[in-house]
Amino acid sequence: MSIADTGHSHLMDRVYRNQRHIYDLTRRYYLLGRDRLIAGLGARPGMRVLEVGCGTGRNLISALRRFPQAEFYGMDISSEMLATARAAACKARLEQRVSFAQGDATDFDPERAFGIRKFERVFMSYTVSMIPEWRRAVEQAMRNVAPGGSLHIVDFGQQEGLPRFFRALLFAWLGWFHVSPRADLREALGEIAAAHDATLDFQSLHRGYSWLAVLKRPA
């Protein structure tokens, strides 16, 4: 079965077929922590950087402009989002600097898609909360990190420092878009880090509105 035939691919295409055109305009106000993640990549010249669930390509273009000597790659399960990402790269005149491929984050094979086995940096921005088998996706992302490289993740936290009514309203609204913040994200990342002899740096941002994590593999 091809990626395009999977149920989750169909769901994501259906959700974003029209919404992708205004996605970046609306998400800038509540997908907090993305630019902090990008700044923290610290991608040096020649480093290969992969975004898992690249969506509209907004993050990749921002990262490419910040680290122009690195190599950038993006994958997403939604063909609709990839169409927008490719168009955005062309509009920014960066289409020769970034490569895209369709794939399932839980079993993505970068060697088959890009001819590359490992990446010095892999990042996931607000994708963990949208992937049903998110643990498998994070584990696969970690397997794609080269020795000495790192996996960077930002996503919704549990709003632990914010009023309860805010959390209830936000989570109800996110549910309409099939987004489920992962309450056990920190514990899961700790287990995955241990399995790869990696270190875990986990931060709560904006009173728990978002969580930022970096898993670094030993060289």
UniProtKB/TrEMBL annotation:
Gene Ontology process terms (BP): methylation
InterPro entries for the chain: Methyltransf_25, SAM-dependent_MTases_sf
GO molecular function, one term: methyltransferase activity
Residue intervals of the Methyltransferase domain: 49-149
Keywords: Methyltransferase, Transferase
Annotated protein name in UniProt: Methyltransferase domain-containing protein
Organism: Parvibaculum sedimenti
